[in-house]
Amino acid sequence: MSTSSTASVSTHILDTSVGRPAEGVAVHLSARSGRSAPHGQGGDWRALGGSVTDADGRCKDLPALPEGTTHVRLDFAVEPYFEKKQADAQQDAPANRDSGAAVFFPEVAITFAVVPGEHYHVPLLLNPFGYSVYRGS
């Protein structure tokens, strides 16, 4: 929950290759404070902790942002999710084994600016060979 001096963040993941939430994806939250320098360098990133997406693809227990946060980074560890999905599919249909990689992007890092008092819901639309994000509500 945000206060007038902090921002708050939430996220969820939809696996667009199957039209369902992505359960079991580890999500790590980092924050930094301070103005960005001309080359995008602000203060040092501070790891705040993380969560794992539930059956609805949501992280309901991401840590609170510290006062003074100006930038947030969400790191999604998607490779284990797709490896498990591929292993489950191969078990169901072994004749359809694919020797290629389970996922092109093994992780997704999303960095965005925040202002105090605002809530930022950042959904990740995911498939094995691409992703998209947006500021939701």
Structural account:
By secondary structure, the protein is mainly beta. It has one helix at residues 79-92; strands spanning 8-15, 20-21, 26-33, 46-52, 58-59, 69-77, 108-113, 119-121, 124-127, 130-133. The protein is elongated and about 50 Å long. The strands form 2 sheets. Strands 1, 2, 5, 8, 9 and 10 form a 6-stranded mixed beta sheet that branches. It has a 4-stranded antiparallel beta sheet with strand order 4-3-6-7.
Structural descriptors:
single chain; 137 residues; mainly beta; six-stranded mixed sheet; four-stranded antiparallel sheet; 1 helix; 10% helix
Give the topology.
Blueprint: E1 8-15, E2 20-21, E3 26-33, E4 46-52, E5 58-59, E6 69-77, H1 79-92, E7 108-113, E8 119-121, E9 124-127, E10 130-133
Parallel strand pairs: 1-8, 1-9
Antiparallel strand pairs: 1-2, 1-5, 3-4, 3-6, 6-7, 9-10
Mean model confidence by pLDDT = 88
Give a short account of the largest sheet.
Answer: 6 strands, mixed
User: Over the alpha carbons, how many angstroms does the gyration radius reach?
Assistant: 17 Å
What is the CA-CA span between the terminal residues? 14 Å
Tally of separate helices:
1
Strand tally is 10
Strand content: 35-45%
| Class based on secondary structure composition and strand pairing | mainly beta
Q: What sequence of helices (H) and strands (E) makes up the elements?
A: EEEEEEHEEEE
Oligomer: single chain
Q: Specify the overall morphology.
A: elongated
- Contiguous runs where pLDDT drops below 50 for at least 5 residues: none
